[in-house]
Amino acid sequence: MHKRTLLAAATLLALPLAAAPLLLRAQDPPMPATATPPAAPAAQSVPLRYKWAVGQSRRYKMTMTMTGTIPTGTSGTRIPMNMAMQMVMRQTVKSIQSGDGAATIVSQIESTRMAMNGKEMPMTAAQQAPMKKPITTEMLPSGKIVSLQMPGLGATVMPGMDIGKSMMGSTLTFPDGLVKVGDTWNGALGAGMMGMQMGMASTLMGVEARNGAQIATISQKISGDLSGMANRAMPAGMGMTGKISGTGSMVFDTTAGALVSQSLQNAIDVTIIAKPGAPAGVPPTMNVQMQQTTLMERLPDAAPAR
Question: Is 123 exposed, middle or buried, given 0-12, 13-18 or 19+ CB atoms closer than 10 A?
Answer without folding.
Answer: middle
